[in-house]
Amino acid sequence: MPETDMGIAVHGAQAPSAPTATAADVQPGGIEFHQVIAPDGVPLNVAVAGNPKGRALLMLHGAYQSYMSFIPQLRDATLAARCRLVAMDMRGHGGSGKPWKTEAYLGSKPWVDDAQLVITALALNKPLLVGWSFGGYVAMDYVREYGPKYVSGVVLVGSHGRLLPRLASNGPLPTGDLEALQAGARQFMAAMSAAPLPQAAVDRGYAAYLMMPNYARIAM
Amino acid sequence: MVLGGQDPSVPEIQVRNLVSKIASARLEVYAESGHSTFVEEAARFNAELDRFASSLSQVPAR
What we know:
Helix content of chain B: 40-55%
Distance between the termini of chain A: 32 Å
Oligomer: heterodimer
Largest sheet of chain A: 6 strands, mixed
Order of helices and strands of chain B: EHEHH
C-alpha cells in the first residue's frame, strides 16, 4: 500500500486490491498511477499527484473522456503543493477496463460504486468531489447513494448534477464506422470550448474519445 | 458550481435559479468560457478550487 497519511479508510469495505504503484516510483511533481479492481473485475486506472498530506480531491471526468482532462489541475504547482489530486478513469473510459456487457454501465450504481472503491482503496479522507459534465452526475449520484458523510463537498463543473432535467442528446448512435468516429471526436472536441483549446488539450480529448469502444458509448 | 457563460449544454438561467434555492451552494460563471472552464481558464479555476478546498479544511470532521 502507498503511504496513507490520513490513516483510516473512510468506508468499512475492504478494497479487493491494493494500488500497485508507490510514491517512490515517481518523480517529484509527477503523476503516479494506481490500478484498483472493481468487484465485477473491471480495472480502474487512477492518476494521483500532489501532496499526500493535503486535502484530497477526487476528480471525475466527462463522458468519453479520461483523467487527462484534468492535466491542468494535476500539473498545477500550487494545487499540487496543497492538495492530494486524484483523477480516476471511469469504467469504459481511458485507461480503465471496458466491460462489454450493457449491465456494467446501467444506472448510476456501477459509477458511484467505482468512485467509492477508489476513495476506499486510496484511503481518501473526505475528498472534495470535482465532477465535470457527466462526472458531475456521478458526483451527485454518489452523494445520493452514499450520503454526504464521506465527502467534504462537491464542485460541479459544467454540470447540473442531474438537479435539472438532462437535455435531449442528439445524433445517431455510433456504428462500426471508425472514420465517422474520428469525425465525431473532432466535432466533440470542437464543442468543448468557446475558443479553440490548446492543441495538447484537444489531442488528449481526441485520444480519450477514440479509446472508448462503441458498445460502452452506447451502453452508458 | 462552475459554469461557462458560453456553454450551451447547461442552461445558465436554470442553474442560477437552482443555486439560489440551495443555501450552501455558490455559482461561479466564467463568462468567456464554454464547457471546459477548468481548461479554458485554468489559472482562475485552480485558484478558486484551491481556495474552496482550503475553506473546507476549516470544517471539523463530522
